[in-house]
Amino acid sequence: MGKRFGWMVVGLMLSFMLVFTASAQAKVIRLKAITAWPVAYPSVDKFKEWVAKVNEKGKGKIEINIVGGPEATPMPEQIGALKRGVFDVLLTAAGYYMGTIPEAEAFGLSRLSPTEERKSGFSDLMVEVHKKHGLMYVGRGMGLVPLGVLCTNIKIDRPQQLKGQKIRTVIIYDAFMRELGAVPVTIPVPEIYTSLERGVVDGFVQPLAGGFTRLGFHEVVKYIVNHYFYQIPTVVLANEKSWSKLPDDSRKLLMDLIKEIEETTVAYYRDIHDKELKKAQELGVKLIEFSPEDAKWFVETAYRVGWENLSKKAPEYAPKLRQMSTK
């Protein structure tokens, strides 16, 4: 009788432990994330670091699972899928969803670092803007690293000589290219190489930190204009409903960790930019240097046209965003 009772006690304890363990596991919040680029791309590096930190420090409470990149959900469909709650977190670029939220263009036009943007109120205003569309702006994926790096196969001495050239762009710098007289052409990143090879375009605008030589662009590009405009507008977004359902401590953890990542992201991607520029030259790509006057005109025209264009599309927020993101 005593042994039977003892086994009953052991059985009850084991059952309790299993129930407790299952209950504890059930309380772990699991968020699904997707990226606009293949997960192996350098553009995703700091996002993966953030996810790893969340999973480490949030163990037992919250975890993020990266389910894939554009092969899982095509890039043009990602912002809509995020809004519908197909997944909870998205790493993307403002240029990919400016048609939905035009104010997102200001991420590229900003001249501040992510940390400076949080101090100026720029980030808070972006949270307000995104919430109107069922999204939560969480933070930067890069920040203050050159976006507008013009690569061309035609030797030019002045920016005005870009007139008539077919340049692969995305919407964030279409207006600037038109101002220069160039012809913007929309082509997905994986098709840039063959488009240059076949002469479909004469050049493209693409950040070096995205992996210039790794993507083989040095094989089909002759020149890089060594004067840059805009910053890489890579951002982390969340489904607003998913975000609002998170416990306060989980939201705080996610925000604290992305702020921590933001403090190192500028130096990380600037280093990639510098190394890619050096490597491209070693592999035969030549730099184009404008005169100081032309260089200033080139860069300042890019920002003037960018803000003018955004002010037409988002008159309520553009002036505030400009004020909060210009030194």
Report on the structure:
- This protein has 327 residues and is α/β, with parallel strands linked by helices.
- It folds into two domains: 28-142 and 233-270, Bacterial extracellular solute-binding protein, family 7 (D-Maltodextrin-Binding Protein, domain 2, 3-Layer(aba) Sandwich), CATH 3.40.190.170; 146-231 and 276-324, 3-Layer(aba) Sandwich (D-Maltodextrin-Binding Protein, domain 2).
- It contains twelve helices and 13 strands.
- It has helices at residues 2-26, 45-57, 75-84, 106-109, 114-120, 122-131, 174-179, 192-197, 240-245, 248-282, 292-313, 318-324; strands spanning 29-35, 62-68, 89-93, 135-140, 146-148, 150-152, 166-169, 183-186, 203-205, 223-225, 229-231, 234-239, 286-288.
- The strands form three sheets. A six-stranded mixed sheet has the order 8-7-9-6-10-13. A five-stranded mixed sheet has the order 2-1-3-12-4, sandwiched between helices.
- Strand 1, helix 2 (45-57) and strand 2 form a beta-alpha-beta unit.
- The protein is globular and about 60 Å long.
- It starts with a helix and ends with a helix.
- The relative contact order is 0.16.
- Residues 5-25 have low confidence and may be disordered.
